[in-house]
Amino acid sequence: MAIQAQLYSENLGFPLGVSQDLMENNSCGFNQFSFNPQQQQYYDYPQQHQQLQNLYQKDNQNLMQFVPTYNSSSAQTMPTFSQSLTSQLEKQNIEINRFLSLQNERLRLTLQEQRKKQMALILRKYESKAQYLLKQKDEEIAKAANRTTELQDFSKRMEIEKQTWQRMAIEKEAMVMSLNNTIEQLKESACSSTNRGTAEDVESSCHVAEEDKTEQQYGHQMMMMMCKSCNSRKSCMIFLPCRHLCSCKYCDTFLHSCPVCNMLKKASIEALI
């Protein structure tokens, strides 16, 4: 029985010879190191390891004292002690597994919380960048809208000014035709009011004077209507903003300033003459 007890103690890794104070403290004093679920977060591994080493040395000393006095009565208590030791080990295994499960759950929750914080930080960072880019795009859209409005207003003003110049050109053309008709009527009335002999002299002199005057006016008008760039074609383009009728349609594409006043050309309108 002594040999069987010694082999059993070697297989378990614990000494069988224990002191009286260890037997009183729940079979070999394992309650000192059993896990308490309420105190697991304050558990200190290095300190317990040192205590286990001290306990192991103390039990070995007690075992050396116990071996010479070992008898049959102590052998009878071995089954009870083995059962108590086995139940205590099973209890400690259950508590260790429970402790590990609790620590795993805490670690999982901690990692999950850290991941949520990191995701929130990343979202805030990219949200600020997105807001900045959206603000820039809104400003660009507002500038483009203002520019479009300005161009539309300018186009409307140019259209109105074009219509005004066309109307003025038509009025000037009608005025020229009216003056020509008046001149013809005056010539006819002046020639018919004189007698025959004198009328011929007067008519000839009047006719010559009127022809000279008409030719001068016509020549002046023709000079005014000639293109100031090529001097060969009729002027039909009005330059803006100086409003000079000074170029033909062909020369208008090559001129960047008015040939009369040298003002920079911003636009040109064709006059219907």
TrEMBL record:
Gene assigned in the entry: BRG3_3
PANTHER family per the UniProt record, alphabetical: BOI-RELATED E3 UBIQUITIN-PROTEIN LIGASE 2-RELATED, SBP (S-RIBONUCLEASE BINDING PROTEIN) FAMILY PROTEIN
UniProtKB keywords: Metal-binding, Zinc, Zinc-finger
Protein name: Boi-related e3 ubiquitin-protein ligase 3
Gene Ontology terms for molecular function: ubiquitin-protein transferase activity; zinc ion binding
Domain of life: Eukaryota
Keyword Transmembrane applies: no
InterPro entries xref list: Znf_RING/FYVE/PHD
Stored Gene3D superfamilies: Zinc/RING finger domain, C3HC4 (zinc finger)
